[in-house]
Design the sequence.
């Protein structure tokens, strides 16, 4: 939706950059609005924390929150958003199941002049999305690929060439094709891996290297595990796979199960991941999964709550730091991006425990 109040974004951004957040941003008791928050699934820890954190942060600002999980079902999410509009929500924060499937409820929101913030996943194919809060998604993929190279010994942690020569056999996995992030992660990773594939130090023996061939519907670990099993059965009867690019911890666990069933272990191929989910961090400590990408969802929730506050007050959020990269097919959505952090056995304690994300007890 083209809100006149956001039409002069560039001017507003300049003003925000000069003046910082306005004093009126402080919550006033009793002026709370109903905010509709929809998340994709409770099957993954990160979305549970995202939802809880946004709810807490908005409530501490005096707002009311309707928090819903769609359990990866598109019609459920459409209905949840329509219900929130009917209940009188003044703002919608949406982490979509399928980023292109919400154009209808977004039209309804626009007609009711309800602004929309896309949370973590871009909402595609609609003009009716005002802002976007996420992480540097391309960089997530770069970090995944760099850790794969480091694990294989082709690269040192300081980015200099590593001791190993290769060639190494790797396989590639991507996330759900209907999630805009999946291509960002994959393209980021391939930007790092391509030179090694070109010079033969890395080989994808299955031949499955195109994004469409390696996606995993709904990021489902079992689906990925089945694909890994098929590849092991057809391509690796006489050879070993040395590394697997995995875009998400749930997928990594599925891949590791397939590897175990295929006779791998106690030494495992280098398997990457994302989200620093508890099971995967334990797996990293146990020497099975090699790495993950930590995204501090507490920070994303905090930033989103503060963006929401500005939007509810008819202001352009001052945090926006990317006005170019997130074209949703209809418009470029102004975004706020946070930095991800690559985590493996060498730094998990510093990054995850010392920051208070996990306690030592949880990781035991
Ligand atoms: C998120 C990732 C997450 C994946 C699966 C993506 O949209 O950015 O953090 O691993 O969805 O839930």
Sequence:
């Amino acid at each position: 939706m083209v809100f006149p109040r956001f039409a002069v974004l560039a001017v507003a951004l300049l003003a925000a950059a000069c003046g910082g957040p306005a004093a009126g941003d402080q919550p006033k008791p009793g002026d709370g609005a109903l905010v509709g928050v929809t998340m994709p699934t409770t099957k993954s820890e990160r979305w549970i924390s995202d939802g809880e954190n946004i709810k807490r942060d908005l409530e501490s600002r005096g707002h009311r929150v309707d928090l819903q999980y769609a359990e990866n079902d598109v019609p459920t999410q459409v209905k949840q958003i329509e219900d929130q509009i009917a209940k009188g929500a003044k703002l919608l924060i949406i982490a979509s199941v399928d980023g292109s499937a919400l154009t209808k409820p977004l039209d309804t929101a626009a007609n009711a002049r309800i602004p929309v913030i896309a949370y973590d996943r871009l909402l595609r194919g609609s003009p009716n999305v005002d802002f976007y809060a996420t992480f540097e998604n391309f960089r997530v993929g770069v970090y995944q690929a760099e850790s794969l190279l480091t694990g294989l010994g082709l690269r040192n942690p300081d980015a200099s060439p590593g001791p190993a020569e290769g060639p190494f056999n790797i396989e590639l996995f991507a996330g759900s094709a209907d999630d805009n992030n999946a291509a960002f992660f994959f393209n980021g990773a391939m930007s790092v891996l391509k030179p090694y594939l070109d010079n033969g130090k890395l080989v994808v023996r299955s031949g499955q290297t195109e994004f469409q061939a390696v996606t995993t519907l709904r990021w489902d670990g079992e689906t990925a595990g089945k694909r890994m099993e098929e590849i092991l059965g057809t391509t690796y009867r006489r050879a070993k796979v040395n590394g697997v690019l995995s875009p998400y911890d749930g997928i990594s666990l599925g891949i590791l199960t397939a590897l175990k069933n295929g006779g791998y272990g106690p030494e495992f191929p280098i398997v990457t991941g994302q989200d620093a989910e508890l099971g995967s961090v334990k797996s990293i400590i146990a020497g099975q999964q090699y790495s993950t990408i930590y995204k501090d969802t507490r920070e994303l929730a905090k930033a989103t709550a503060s963006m929401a506050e500005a939007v509810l007050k008819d202001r352009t959020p001052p945090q926006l730091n990317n006005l170019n990269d997130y074209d949703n097919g209809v418009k470029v959505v102004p975004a706020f991006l946070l930095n991800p952090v690559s985590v493996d056995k060498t730094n998990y304690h510093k990054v995850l425990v010392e920051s208070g994300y996990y306690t030592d007890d949880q990781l035991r």
Remarks:
- The radius of gyration is 21 Å.
